[in-house]
UniProtKB/TrEMBL annotation:
This is YceI family protein. Belongs to the UPF0312 family. InterPro entries: CarboxyPept-like_regulatory (IPR008969), Lipid/polyisoprenoid-bd_YceI (IPR007372), TTHA0802/YceI-like_sf (IPR036761). Residues 101-267 form the Lipid/polyisoprenoid-binding YceI-like domain. SMART domains: YceI. It comes from Pseudonocardia yunnanensis. It holds the Pfam family YceI.
Amino acid sequence: MSIPLTGGLVSGDVRDGEGKPLAGAHVAIFDRSNKCVARSETDPYGFFAAALMPGAYRVRAEAGGYQSFHERTEVEWGTHSSLGSLTLIPDATLTVPTPGLYEIDPDHSAIRFVARHIAMSRVYGQFMEFAGQIYIAERFEDSQVEVLIDAASVFTNAEKRDAHLRSADFLDVARFPKLHFTSHRFSRPGGNRWLIDGELTLHGMTSDVQLDTTYLGMQEWNGMRAGCTATTELHREHFTVNWQQILARGVPVVGSTIQITLDIQGILQSAK
């Protein structure tokens, strides 16, 4: 990034305690009045840069699972101010849950989905009935999760549409009453982010699925609870859901890609 004619440049890189770059860290820069004047995410090598008017600034760097970092700097006209490496310290409350068996609380959890309709709008829905368990092992990578979803509990707030989704065109709940997810690998790319690889059985077909998961920590409320959110993307064709009604201009009525979002609270049943 070149230095602007009427200002200066500030840059730096964000790293973890081991010196590894933190890609996607959030960097915000505030002026003397505490107004945010620049905001960016670090690149794959942890670097960021911003062009600013001359003056005093406060730089804040944040990443999931780490304590935020604050640094002050002075930007002068026609100069480049390098902050060097900003090291983020892990947040001990967002490492991993207490090892043990957790039962998913359906009253405080949700499994939602979004599908594109006639390439113009999105249809939002969820499954109302599901159950599952999460086992957090002493060695985190050995953890496991299993979830069963009642296919007939699909709900999009439109009775006719829900009946169609339950039909043989889509979920075919008479033949395939359950959706089943079971994990085979847990990993932690860094901070409070997990990757959970597993297999989803839907419509009689099993396909690999990866859940991009954010761990939210633990709280005590009617039992010790751990929380997380997760997202993934499914393709209907992978599960032989091939209903292909097309509009006259060649646009599919229902898009092939389904976005899945999970909000999960697990209640600790027994500690390891």
